[in-house]
Design goal:
The chain is α/β, with parallel strands linked by helices. The protein is built from nine helices and seven strands.
C-alpha cells in the first residue's frame, strides 16, 4: 500500500466513503482504482457499511495481490479487467478514486457512465490545490490537475445533478468521557481553533437527481502514522540540507575551476594576440620587400623591352646589309660576265667593288658584333628576370607559409574562444543549479519550520490537556473527600 496520507490514498478514500455511507445500503457498488491504494480495506469497508455487493477493479493482477491477501468477504470481489469488459447498467453506485482524467477524456467519462443503472450515482474526486496531509509525507502536488470549472463542467454535460463537497485536512484531539449507562457519547465538533483551510480535493456526487447528502463528516486518521510521516519528512529535510551543502560546495568548486580555466584562457589569448601582431608585422615587412622586388622586376622588364627593341633595330640593319651584299654579289656576277668585253673597265670596277666589299664586310662584322652584344644583353636581362621570378616565387611561398601559420593561430584562437564560451556556459549552468538547490533548500526549510511549529503547537496543546486533566483529577479527589465527609 502507498502512503496512508497520499493523495487518493487510503486516508482520503476512506474519508470519502464515510461521507457517502447513506448511499451504500443495498447498493451494487463498483470501486475503480482504490484496491491497490488501500490494500482492499476500502472495498471491505463498503461491504461492512451496507453495500449489497462490491466489485473492486484494477488494471492488472499485480495491483490486487495485497488486497486479496488482506482479507475476504462473501460480498466483495477483486478483479483485474478493463471497464469495457463490464456489463452496462450493472451497478447502482460507481466510486472512481481519481476523476482527473474525466475532465480531459469525454470517452472515458462515457465509459464510466454506461456502467450505471437507472438512477445510479457516480462519486469521484479531483485535487483542489489546497494543502493536504500528503504534504507531510513529502508527496509533490499534482502538476496537471484539472481546474474546478473544467472538472465540474465535464460532469455537468453528462449528469443532470452534480453535487460538489470539499475535502479538507485537519488535526486535533478527541476528548471522550463515556456515559455511565454505557451508551454512545454525544459528539460535538469545535472548529474555532482550526483557522482557515483550503480544500485539498473536490468530491463530486453525480446522478439523475440530488442525493440529499449534507452536513459535516469528521473522519479521524491514525495520529501515529501522521507523526511518523512528519518525522520522516524532517529526516528527509535534514538529508536534503546536507545534500544541499554538498551541492553548494561542488558548485563553488566548479566555479573556481571555471574561473581558473578562464584566466588561463585569457592569458593564452593574450599570447596569441602578441604572436599575431608579430606575424602581422613580419607579413607587412614581407609585403614591402615584395613591392620592392616587383618594382625591380618592372625595371628589368622595361630594360628587356628596350634590349628587344635594339635587337629588332639591329636585325633590320643586318637585313639591309645582307640585301646590299646580295646586290653587290649580283653586280659582281654581272661584272664577271662583262669581263671579257671590257677588261680595263673590269679591273677598275673590280678594285672599286673589292673596296666596297671590304667596307661592307667591315660593316657586316660591326653589325654582327652589335647583334651579339644585344643578344648577350638580352640573355643577361632574361637571367635577371628569371632570378626575379624565382625570388618572387620564394616570396610567395614564404607568404603562403605565413598565411598557413596565421590560419593555424586563428584556429587556435577560435578554439580558445570556444572553450572560454563553454566555460562561461558551464559556470552559468552551475550557478543556475546552485540557485535551484538554494531555492529548494529554502522551500524544504519552510516546510520543516511549519511542521516543527505544528508539532510545537501539538505539544503545547498536549501539555495544556495534561494540566487540565491533573486539575480535573485534583477536583475529583477533593469532591471524593467531601463526599466521604458527607
Amino acid at each position: 500500500m502507498a502512503s496512508f496520507f497520499a493523495r487518493n490514498g487510503a486516508g482520503e478514500i476512506l474519508a470519502r466513503y464515510s461521507f457517502i455511507e447513506p448511499l451504500l445500503e443495498g447498493r451494487r457498488v463498483l470501486e475503480i482504482g482504490a484496491a491497490a491504494a488501500t490494500d482492499g480495506a476500502s472495498a471491505l469497508l463498503l461491504a461492512e457499511r451496507g453495500a449489497a455487493a462490491v466489485l473492486s477493479v484494477e488494471p492488472d493482477e499485480a495491483s490486487l495481490e495485497a488486497a486479496r491477501a488482506a482479507g475476504r468477504h462473501p460480498f466483495v470481489r477483486f478483479e483485474a479487467m478493463p471497464l469495457e469488459a463490464l456489463k452496462p447498467g450493472a451497478f447502482d453506485l460507481v466510486l472512481l478514486a481519481d476523476g482527473g482524467p474525466l475532465a480531459e477524456d469525454p470517452a472515458r467519462l462515457a465509459a464510466v457512465a454506461r456502467l450505471l443503472a437507472d438512477g445510479g450515482t457516480l462519486v469521484t474526486a479531483v485535487a483542489a490545490g489546497g494543502r493536504s496531509l500528503a504534504d507531510l509525507a513529502g508527496e509533490e502536488a499534482p502538476a496537471l490537475a484539472p481546474s474546478y470549472e473544467s472538472f465540474v463542467g465535464a460532469l455537468t454535460e453528462r449528469f443532470p445533478s452534480v453535487e460538489v463537497a470539499t475535502l479538507s485536512a485537519t488535526v486535533g484531539f478527541a476528548v471522550v468521557l463515556p456515559p455511565q449507562d454505557g451508551s454512545d457519547p454525544d459528539v460535538s465538533v469545535d472548529g474555532s481553533q482550526a483557522g482557515e483551510s483550503d480544500a485539498a480535493a473536490y468530491l463530486a456526487i453525480c446522478g439523475d437527481e440530488p442525493t440529499g447528502l449534507t452536513g459535516l463528516t469528521m473522519a479521524a486518521m491514525p495520529a501515529r502514522l501522521l507523526l511518523d510521516a512528519a518525522a520522516g519528512a524532517r529526516e528527509a529535510a535534514r538529508t536534503l540540507s546536507a545534500a544541499g551543502e554538498a551541492a553548494r560546495a561542488a558548485a563553488e568548486r566548479v566555479v573556481a575551476e571555471a574561473q581558473a580555466e578562464r584566466d588561463q584562457a585569457l592569458t593564452s589569448l593574450t599570447d596569441v594576440r602578441a604572436v599575431r601582431d608579430e606575424i602581422a608585422a613580419a607579413r607587412q615587412a614581407l609585403l614591402g620587400e615584395l613591392e620592392a622586388a616587383l618594382q625591380e622586376k618592372e625595371g628589368l622588364l622595361q630594360d628587356r623591352d628596350a634590349a628587344l627593341a635594339a635587337e629588332g633595330e639591329a636585325r633590320v640593319e643586318l637585313e639591309r646589309l645582307l640585301r646590299e651584299v646580295e646586290q653587290a654579289r649580283g653586280e659582281r656576277d654581272a661584272l664577271a660576265d662583262a669581263r671579257g668585253l671590257a677588261a680595263e673597265e673590269a679591273e677598275r670596277s673590280r678594285a672599286v667593288h673589292l673596296a666596297s666589299a671590304e667596307a661592307l664586310r667591315a660593316d657586316l662584322e660591326a653589325a654582327t658584333e652589335k647583334l651579339r652584344g644585344a643578344e648577350a644583353l638580352c640573355d643577361a636581362e632574361r637571367e635577371a628576370g628569371q632570378a626575379a621570378r624565382a625570388d618572387a616565387e620564394r616570396l610567395a611561398q614564404v607568404l603562403a607559409l605565413r598565411d598557413r601559420e596565421l590560419g593555424d593561430i586563428r584556429a587556435a584562437q577560435a578554439d580558445l574562444t570556444r572553450r572560454l564560451a563553454e566555460a562561461e556556459m558551464e559556470a552559468a549552468r552551475v550557478g543556475e543549479e546552485r540557485t535551484r538547490a538554494v531555492t529548494e533548500l529554502a522551500e524544504r526549510s519552510g516546510a520543516i519550520h511549519e511542521a516543527q511549529s505544528a508539532l510545537q503547537a501539538v505539544r503545547s496543546e498536549q501539555q495544556a490537556g495534561r494540566s487540565a486533566l491533573e486539575a480535573a483529577l485534583n477536583r475529583a479527589e477533593g469532591a471524593e473527600a467531601r463526599l466521604q465527609e458527607l
